[in-house]
Specification:
Number of helices: 3
Largest sheet: none
Order of helices and strands: HHH
Number of strands: 0
CATH topology: Helix Hairpins
Radius of gyration: 17 Å
CATH architecture: Orthogonal Bundle
Helix content: over 70%
CATH class: Mainly Alpha
Structural class: mainly alpha
Strand content: under 5%
């Protein structure tokens, strides 16, 4: 169970203290979800509860959908801006350029 709390702590640390890159923030959120799924699996196995294991599958599916959406946004942002750094990007000034997006 310490591994799960350690994963959550690493994810929170990366989410709070790394505000320069969108990709690292998405990875930190994934680590937090992995830690919670790990702790939930331990509790579910100890209590012989199948509902907890099904909820873990739901958490993993939501995490996969979140990563796919975030990475597609990051690819679009890097094509439009040339960088995915938070300080250099302003979402309000993004302009559509049909030559870049295929």
């Amino acid at each position: 169970m310490l591994i799960g709390f350690f994963l959550i702590f690493i994810g929170l640390y990366g989410f709070i203290f790394n505000r320069n890159n969108y990709l690292l923030i998405v990875i930190s959120i994934e680590i937090i979800l992995l830690g919670t799924a790990y702790i939930l699996s331990i509790f579910s196995i100890n209590n012989d509860d199948i509902i907890g294991l099904l909820f873990i599958l739901y958490i993993i599916a939501i995490a996969a959908a979140e990563v796919a959406l975030a990475l597609s946004i990051l690819v679009t942002m890097s094509r439009l801006r040339g960088s995915i750094h938070i300080k250099t990007s302003n979402i309000n000034t993004l302009k559509y350029n049909p030559k870049i997006i295929v």
